[in-house]
Amino acid sequence: xxxxxxxxxxxxxxxxxxxxxxxxxxxxxxxxxxxxxxxxxxxxxxxxxxxxxxxxxxxxxxxxxxxxxxxxxxxxxxxxxxxxxxxxxxxxxxxxxxxxxxxxxxxxxxxxxxxxxxxxxxxxxxxxxxxxxxxxxxxxxxxxxxxxxxxxxxxxxxxxxxxxxxxxxxxxxxxxxxxxxxxxxxxxxxxxxxxxxxxxxxxxxxxxxxxxxxxxxxxxxxxxxxx
Length: 227
Prior knowledge:
About 65% of the residues lie in helices and about 0% in strands. By secondary structure, the protein is mainly α. Helix 3 (about 75-90) packs antiparallel against helix 4, helix 5 (about 110-120) packs antiparallel against helix 6 and helix 8 runs antiparallel to helix 9. The protein is elongated and about 60 Å long.
């Protein structure tokens, strides 16, 4: 499947920021959370190719976030930020530990699981650990716009990393069930079938996309091209 042919109309970063900012209030807390380990707050710069100016900026942000968490260890967003900074430092183990902690802190969130899935897939190459995190991210975000983005990532995992086309297709079909009125989900399915040479299925899903938004010119052009 050609990734470039799939043009999802989702501002993933914006959605992540919005959802993340609400995390403290919306995601149910877990009982019996393990206390933060001291090494969570240690700076370990593994990637020595980072420019000094970049390192300094990350260190300053890390220390600021650390102080906020020492005052209130229940701040979900700050844990997410701390893990991301560790990842930028190349400290993948450190990022993993904190995202796992964030998942314990807010077991119904989706962002920490999505970040763990990405970390295990693209950086640690531990596909066995990646799988349940994709599933948790999707399960915890049903009904949210970002769910389609997680479906796309899970599809890529099966299709490109595990070379399992059958399961990749099932991920998309399950995504359709969870997002029956989402135009991006229909375009994703249509693009998949188009790339697989299944013209009838591609037209079916492009038409479903057009039924959701009859003014979408890119969908109209795709239908015209296939007919």
